[in-house]
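W.,

You were right to be curious about this one. When I first looked at the sequence I had no strong expectations either way, so I just let the prediction run and decided to look at it fresh. Below is the sequence, 158 residues in total, followed by the output.
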Amino acid sequence: MLEKLEQETEIDLTRVFVAGFSAGAMVVWTLACHRSDAIAGFIPVSGTFWEPLPGQCGSLDADLIHCHGRQDDVVPMQGRPVADSHQGDLDAAFALMAQTSEFGTSISQERSELSCERRESETGQRLELCTFDGGHQFRVGFLQDAFLQFSANSPIQN
């Protein structure tokens, strides 16, 4: 799809971000795991991998900022069984992604309604979990916050 966009439009692929909520966030995590070299940044909200998690991911070549409600009972952060499947554990997803690059120690930051824990790689990629009071929900402010963080971390000017 990205190759087709590049061929048929004047879109700047270095500025393409992928976001998704709930099951859409599960797709975002999968793309981050397998195609982070093709996307500028990832914003999954309230969703992660299904179990079993991938055996390994490629190098994280883009920023990933995940937002999740601390009281989410639809896709709890620790995962849960659903019929014959199981939603994955968010800590395990972060651990899997962190294996792909050398990430420094976690830095805590409060940003409006978000409590964030950020780790950065030696090459500047951000791997960040932002939690909020609430359940399984999406807010436009999550995307706005992530875009502000991406732009502050990027050499690309608006």
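Here's what jumped out at me. The longest strand covers residues 63-69. And, maybe more interesting for your project: The CA atoms of residues 108 and 117 lie 5 Å apart.

Coffee later to discuss?

I.
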